[in-house]
């Protein structure tokens, strides 16, 4: 069925102001380079500073979007009401015991943001520590960062971003009085307390790269804070953290596929950082302290899917690493945590996770497993912040099963269900079906596809489908529950997630097989997923809407160039589509660190050719495209607003169809859209209304 978009005249046409650049003997001509503001860093912090010609173009696109989608206003209101009806408004977390207190968050009915509070460990009166609603009251946008309580539980740090640029200001609060210090620390990335008067924090530079770690003593001028560590390699970012036992501060510096760790004893916070193991090409490691040794998760020694080793705290370098959990190809060790008497790890094989645990000193063959039986599901480890404990917490959900929180006794093996996410408007898992199929890709690789549909949806090819994917940086897409998706599924959609190469669903090799010149495997896998859904009669050609965001926007942007015939629509959320120009520009915040994923096209002719071959902006073709919705954010430091804006401008004058092409730019926020649990529903409602229109169901 043809989309039901109204005929809108006067689609915005951006000026063509040609700019050229030559690399490796190839001259690139970019008619829309001018959409990148020279003062983009200033505009990121203060969107009103965007140059008038750029602002006018983005606002014209927004007006065009509003006109094209005006007839969905009632539908969007209905979708928002449905999605809000699935949210328990007066929700709260399961209390978490830590030291003398139990901590939790709670939402009041109607509140956009939570309140953080605590009670005495074994019960008693509540004390509100942080009310995000009160802090957000004077801001159009408000996103709080990490909340960290001091070791003595008397102080707390909290951070906030008030424009979506992800530049956070750090505040220090006295929990006895509830008052914040009379100073703030600007542009903080991460925070770790050493003791009750000393904290460490990472600071981002003007390019939004976390490059420095400082030590701060409470009550002193932040301008006098001591620089503890500076990362000179622009490919690397860094962060700080405190070990579970409280014995060490860790400085974690690295890029996507390579890192190193430095430690500082909290007993001597003025000590110089000590390096665990120097950085080495392609080697990753992370560590947890356990008594006189560290437990280290690493891919060293060709442990492609990672292994766990231990090393003495006194001499933790690589020559002293001894295997605890050896490498097993195809079993990806996703994460690891350690307590005084236990080691816990999450592993994944064939796109399904499980949690394993082992008592200290026991042979690895005696480890125990926590697993579930659904065809597709998601597990999350949520270990206790306490070091000396037998308690462990984990979460479970599936596309049909709302999130559950379990407490687990590592000694007895008893699991206790502490919370099931409540759906106030009602939800019966038996009304829905979850399936996992395997899609054969162009080279024979079997791509897992998770499917959700209503039990009454006919599987005869007549159903529309929303197909979602990401496929970059080794990030795996969990088969988890989403209450919002039910608004599509209840309207007859099949919802599918393609677990394509570029993630780690099938181990590290699944990720490595979509890097550098192999990136095209991600796109072929996604196309294969669409074709498998058609072959299995879950949907049909021309009934599929694809969606992806950020690097997932690169995915859907490339696929819409390659196989538009399969599609009814495409939704690109802040899509990374101007890949070649971005990766050629080493002044952009994330570019140097990206070279480990895509290659360095500045130095490598092959990398230049590879990226040029698939970059969505560079491969826009005079062909028919489906209906398309593209979003952007002026304050976005991750995918800068001009990437989607340039792409839409080029598509508008190149494509040969009359299908709708929409760009909606959030003029006051960034990569993650609106803040607040209800405000964010507006973004989901827009996307779903567009998907429904694209298949003629709005």
Automatic annotation (TrEMBL):
Annotated PROSITE patterns: PRO_ENDOPEP_SER (PS00708)
Gene3D superfamilies linked: alpha/beta hydrolase, Prolyl oligopeptidase, N-terminal domain
InterPro entries, per the entry: AB_hydrolase_fold, Pept_S9_AS, Pept_S9A_N, Peptidase_S9_cat, Peptidase_S9A, Serine_Peptidase_S9A
One GO BP annotation of this record: proteolysis
Molecular function per GO: serine-type endopeptidase activity
Keyword DNA damage attached: no
Assigned keywords, A-Z: Hydrolase, Protease, Serine protease
Peptidase S9 prolyl oligopeptidase catalytic domain segment(s): 480-697
Domain Peptidase S9A N-terminal as annotated: residue spans: 14-419
Signal peptide feature range: none
PANTHER family per record: PROLYL ENDOPEPTIDASE-LIKE, PROTEASE FAMILY S9A OLIGOPEPTIDASE
Family according to the record: Belongs to the peptidase S9A family.
Protein name in UniProt: Oligopeptidase B
Organism: Yoonia sediminilitoris
